[in-house]
Each structure stands twice: as structure tokens, then as C-alpha cells.
Design goal:
With about 270 residues, this protein is of the alpha+beta class. Helices cover about 20% and strands about 20% of the residues. The two termini are about 25 Å apart.
Length: about 270
């Protein structure tokens, strides 16, 4: 699933080519999605909120997309060849000299502005991990409402606590800070939890200049633990471990020596 840094870059690209332009054509494969109402409207803003992307149009409509594991946005000049087959395009918006194509995204919907506040996902999102300044007080307050036994590896993926972190950065931040993914958040002082959040945000910001977001370290290159199960820790040489964690059963990666805990044996 694309993480917050990927969506941040996507928003920058869409903003650069689309904001201020008037939609001249729109089509979709999503049943019931009334994209015809976008034609003739000016694109006013593009925002990334955690793992969600919002495109705002004049006079109110908001296009909400969530990529999950399969989706992506591409922008092409009119007439350019697409890098993916047209059958994968779920939404196409033409504006100015460019065509914005949303491929394979499972969530595409048009919202009224006031609907954001009560939306089942958007309305409950925690502070964005890439926001500046980062709302550390808000994040800490939300984190401490979670059950005391909630593992750090679960907490960092909880989008209602902190929006934008995915499996790559939860694994890498926990490694950098020396915390085991199965350690409960109640075992950390507020200062330690804040440091962990700041570390994740810093790692994500450092990756923003990369152009090919989803290929960076996807096989472990440049990463300390993510997708390096069985390979030696870059610090101590111990074999990196991997195991499913939490209700989502996302694979957590950790070094048993650098991130020790009796709760994470196995």
C-alpha cells in the first residue's frame, strides 16, 4: 500500500499540472460515479491526507481516492502513451494540456465538502505524519486512548492516531529507535513515543525527493529491516526476523538483538 510520502509526491505532481485548469472531459469505470458534473469546473486544490488524496473543484465537489494495494495516479500530456493499459483506468480527467489517470484504485468517490467531516475514513483520520508542524500533542493524546497493551507496531499503523505511516516506515522507525514491534505503547514514556513518531516522520521526509516512490528499497536495498528477513542486521549481524502482527496481520520486520523483547520471540 502506498504510504504517506508516495501520496505526498502524487499530490505535488497533480497540483503542478492540474490546479487552475478547467476540466474539459471526464470518464470513469466506477458505476454511479457522476464525473460528468466535473466538466467545466476549475480544479482548485490537490491535497494528500495520510494515505488519502483529495482533489477539490470550484463550487464544492471533492474527489476522494484511496490507493490501497493496487492504485496509482499518473499524469500525461495530451497524446502521450500511457504506461498502463487503458482497461486498468478507473477514472480519467482531462484538463488543459494534461490527462490525469487513476489506475486500479479501489476507492473513488465524489463528496460534498461538508461530507468530509462525517466520512467514515476521512472524518476520523489522525494528524498527517508529513504535516509541518507535526501535531505531536494531538498524536500523543490519540495514542494514549488506545488500550495499554496495544503494540507499537500496531499503533504506528493506526490511521486514526497518525495518518500516513505504512509498513515500511513503521518497521524502519522502530529499528532506528530500538523498539520491538510487540512492545506495548504503555511501556514508553511520552518523550520516547514522541521521539518514535518524529523518527518516522523524518524518514518519510527524507524519501520525498525520490521519483520512483514504490521501487525505493522494495527488495530491501537501502533499508535496515524492511523485507530483509533472514539477512544480517547492518548493525550487529543477527538475522532479521519477520512475523505477522495485529488484526491486519501485516508483516513486521525486526532485529532480535537491536530490538529485544520477550514478547516478540518466535
Amino acid at each position: 500500500m502506498p504510504e504517506g510520502d508516495t501520496l505526498f509526491r502524487t499530490a505535488v505532481a497533480l497540483r503542478r499540472w492540474l490546479v487552475g485548469e478547467v476540466v474539459t472531459a471526464a470518464r470513469t469505470r466506477v458505476p454511479g460515479l457522476a464525473v460528468a458534473r466535473l466538466v467545466g469546473r476549475r480544479i482548485e486544490a490537490v491535497e494528500a491526507r495520510g494515505k488519502h488524496l483529495l482533489i477539490r473543484f470550484e463550487d464544492g465537489p471533492v474527489l476522494h481516492t484511496h490507493m490501497r494495494m493496487t492504485g496509482s495516479w499518473h499524469v500525461y500530456r495530451q497524446g502521450d502513451r500511457w504506461r498502463r493499459p487503458e482497461r486498468q483506468a478507473r477514472l480519467v480527467i482531462e484538463a488543459g494540456d494534461h490527462v490525469a489517470v487513476c489506475f486500479n484504485a479501489p476507492v473513488i468517490e465524489l463528496l460534498a465538502p461538508q461530507a468530509e467531516r462525517v466520512h467514515p475514513s476521512l472524518g476520523r483520520l489522525g494528524p498527517d505524519v508529513l504535516a509541518e508542524p507535526l501535531d505531536l500533542d494531538g498524536i500523543l493524546l490519540r495514542a494514549r486512548t488506545r488500550p495499554a497493551e496495544t503494540a507499537l507496531g500496531e499503533l504506528l499503523l493506526d490511521q486514526q492516531v497518525l495518518a500516513g505511516i505504512g509498513n515500511i516506515y513503521r518497521s524502519e522507525a522502530l529499528y532506528v529507535c530500538g523498539h520491538n514491534p510487540w512492545t506495548s505503547h504503555s511501556q514508553l514514556a511520552d518523550e520516547e513515543l514522541v521521539k518514535l513518531v518524529e523518527c518516522a516522520a523524518s524518514l518519510m521526509r527524507a524519501n520525498l525527493p525520490h521519483v520512483v516512490a514504490r521501487d525505493v528499497g522494495r527488495h530491501g536495498e537501502g533499508r535496515s529491516v524492511y523485507r530483509r528477513a533472514g539477512r544480517p542486521c547492518r548493525r550487529c549481524g543477527a538475522a532479521i526476523r519477520a512475523r505477522a502482527l495485529g488484526e491486519q496481520a501485516r508483516i513486521a520486520y525486526w532485529c532480535p538483538t537491536c530490538q529485544p523483547s520477550g514478547q516478540a520471540s518466535g
